[in-house]
Amino acid sequence: MADKNVYKPRPISGFPEWSPEVRRTEQRWIDTIRRVFESYGYGNLETPSVEELDVLLAKGETDKEIYTLQRLHEGDGDEGGEARLGLHYDLTVPFARYAAQHFGELVFPFKRYQIQRVWRGERPQEGRFREFYQCDVDVIDLNGVSLTFDAEMAEVAHAVLSTLGIGPFRLRLSNRKILQGYLAGLGVADVIPAIRLLDKLDKIGAEGVVEALQVQLGLAAETAQRCVALAEISSSDASFVEAVRVLGVENELIDEGLEELVFVIEALGHLPEGRVVADLSLARGFDYYTGTVYEGAFLDYSDFGSICSGGRYDDLAGSFINQHLPGVGISIGLTRIFSKLVAEERLDLSRFSPTDVLVVLPGEEVRAVAAGVAQTLRGRGFNVELYHEPTKIGKQLRYAARKEIPFVWFPPFKPGETVHEVKDMAAGVQAEADAETWTPGG
Amino acid sequence: MADKNVYKPRPISGFPEWSPEVRRTEQRWIDTIRRVFESYGYGNLETPSVEELDVLLAKGETDKEIYTLQRLHEGDGDEGGEARLGLHYDLTVPFARYAAQHFGELVFPFKRYQIQRVWRGERPQEGRFREFYQCDVDVIDLNGVSLTFDAEMAEVAHAVLSTLGIGPFRLRLSNRKILQGYLAGLGVADVIPAIRLLDKLDKIGAEGVVEALQVQLGLAAETAQRCVALAEISSSDASFVEAVRVLGVENELIDEGLEELVFVIEALGHLPEGRVVADLSLARGFDYYTGTVYEGAFLDYSDFGSICSGGRYDDLAGSFINQHLPGVGISIGLTRIFSKLVAEERLDLSRFSPTDVLVVLPGEEVRAVAAGVAQTLRGRGFNVELYHEPTKIGKQLRYAARKEIPFVWFPPFKPGETVHEVKDMAAGVQAEADAETWTPGG
Prior knowledge:
Two copies of one chain form a homodimer.
Chain A: H1 20-39, E1 43-44, E2 50-52, H2 53-56, E3 67-71, E4 85-87, H3 92-101, E5 110-119, E6 131-140, H4 148-164, E7 169-175, H5 176-185, H6 191-198, H7 201-217, H8 221-231, E8 234-235, H9 240-245, H10 252-267, E9 276-279, E10 289-298, E11 306-313, E12 327-332, H11 334-343, E13 357-359, H12 367-379, E14 384-386, H13 393-402, E15 407-410, E16 421-424, E17 429-432
Parallel strand pairs in A: 1-5, 7-9, 13-14, 13-15
Antiparallel strand pairs in A: 2-4, 5-6, 6-12, 7-10, 8-9, 10-11, 11-12, 15-16, 16-17
């Protein structure tokens, strides 16, 4: 073929694209997540991909890199005075905006989930993308949210992750009141910097944190050690309470936080041992969350970081409405988790093609019969291809093999004949069959 | 509450957003479309929302208004030399780019579907959005695509539209070779402008078109009339052939076109009468398509325009690869159709909430029992909410009523009691039940 003037496209870094068989598995994941969310009575919301830039920035300068939109021929038309639009960088801002706009129509407690792509113009790296799916589930209420939901969020996230079969994982829970009250009780002034350092316990170890607390924040050695002693507490039952008590720090917030965390941990007592643990080092989103906080991680890939996270917040939509809308929610990093398992080749991949049965087309004179078989099988819920031309049977079989189609149907080769046969490609077995009653393996 | 500094968000014109109950129906539609596409063996592809601008513009200046992306803090970082990105304005360009990039991995005929949002920075109006779902199904092959697929595309589109239950609709089919050959046979030089005028037959009527052909293109009155005579031909069986023959215009292309269209129409003979018709006025995308063309429309809203369209094309990915990839495909305007039926209040809307059963929480002392019922019912596939606090039963029932939850479950109100009851909210009937065996209406 003559050389043409072609533009060779390059993959775009940070924008994942899967082959059809991987994509089928991703879609199966999305369906599963949806089903689990709905099984707890959460309703779906899908917002536009864009928000007004003023909405995206309403909480003040964001540290997320926002993509703004510009029409290619802008200024040609033109519609001046239109709001500048940006792609949403999370699903919380759109949910807050939606709740504010539709406040009067909501039934409280308002339970919603959202599974959509979000965009961030950041430098891509392992597990960090510029376009990715996030799966958020939240409940907001008018006058305080029942603590029941703090447990439900962890239960839902656990149900999602275990139903997906992502391998061993752990959900860590804490309550920010404990750490905050404890630091106050110890007389630590720089609460936020102290928490940031305690959050590094995993990475730099207890001694490293103790030293940093002294050097960077000027804490006394004993105070620094007591801080670390709290952060080191973790248990899968309510025994963390006793561990905190023996540290001897008194503060009302500690009591509140412990009581809440006990309620949540005990409500999750029916989950498999070790899947959900109270871990007082968890400091996730401390500036935003006000009570329970969550973070999930793979056990096999400890350096990979968070695979889901969330917590209880004081007010969702305060930037947009004169209403106080407290809530609790959790966000599952679908693309992060999925892409990691793709990279580790640990995904249970779908077949190459969705097709269950290829109906052979022996000749034009039996096309109507073959098409009828395909239609009957489709009506019974099978995915069926009718081979598109009456070519050699061997070629049709090779097509089925290359597409990993598990069954090949042979209609009668001549008009007037009535015997149909179906071949199980994996077993290599061929047997008589009736399209009205045939079942795989039956 | 004290007045806060709030930014009141406005709806963004052209970016549809549905309430959760409408959204549920939209999602059910998407699931249905997916299921129908897969039932014919088409595999799913999902491409990034963006393409390099050079890819979007590879076919030359597009008449679609493209949204380009810009990072808000661009220039801060900075990664110079990155390709400019734009949101895809259809699903054909991404498919072409994908096919070119993965050419070596594809199994031919390559059958794919794609259900994604696309973006166009155009002025919104009824049925025209800036962000909307499109559902494309295509097959491409190496050395010509079997005519079987021309029929299959119409069959798939018909299956989608009738399964969705969108009300009366019609798919019109033609073959561009007929009109092209006919005009050539008549000696009409300005083929494209003539076709554009013939395409207006519906709107300005036969006399209007005859006059325009004379005035604007200088055709003789008789030639103009013979053009219109062809465009007026339509039939739901192969009788259009005879109608063309009696017009007495001879051209090889006419014969080819008629033969192909007869094959397609006859292959669709099993569909309900009147749903699929040959209509020789159809001139859809004449500059792009090379054979069969399709267009679907509502019968009840004749001014609304196309609800699906497509056709056979000579080469998909020629801008990106030195390969000839002919194909045939059809695109279903999901958001167009859906939004019209929403506006006409003709949608069979879902319940307000996905929840099937609300389990009443009579008191903390029976929380474990109530939670156990919820878990058992979820395990059996029901969507279940456990009421979040042990408040008055009347309040819990009102919550169920407001959310249109069809069943309310009453666990025993005191520890030690064993009788469970379930109330059918619509029927107002309450009866004893067992979570392991209960079925709605059972």
